[in-house]
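Internal tracking record. Fields below are filled automatically when a chain is submitted to the structure queue. Please do not edit lines marked as system-generated. If the sequence contains nonstandard residues, flag them in the REMARKS field before resubmitting.
Queue: standard
Priority: normal
Entity type: single polypeptide chain
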Amino acid sequence: MIRTFYYDSSSDEGIESSEAREMTLENALETFYNLSEEKGSFIGFKTNDKIIQFDWNDDNLWMADIPDPQKRGSFQKECDYDQCVEIIKSAFDKPNWQIPNDFVFMSW
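SYSTEM-GENERATED OUTPUT FOLLOWS
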């Protein structure tokens, strides 16, 4: 089960992380596609044991962030739009997916 949360800074609309909702892959991708590319816009996904979130950074660049509270940090990678879509698809296809090797751990 994957639940989605997001915030669109342009429309000031979203779903709080604490109220994340189940969505199909198609609905999740549509929500991502429709997010404004403005500072503060983000989308996140909760799987069984992980959270992955994408925060808009700059023109076609998103920061992918996978928090690891036990290690007191996050695995991160700056991704373009297409890379984000591939990661999202992977998370929906394999609920027990692993953190990609090219993510870098950053302490909080």
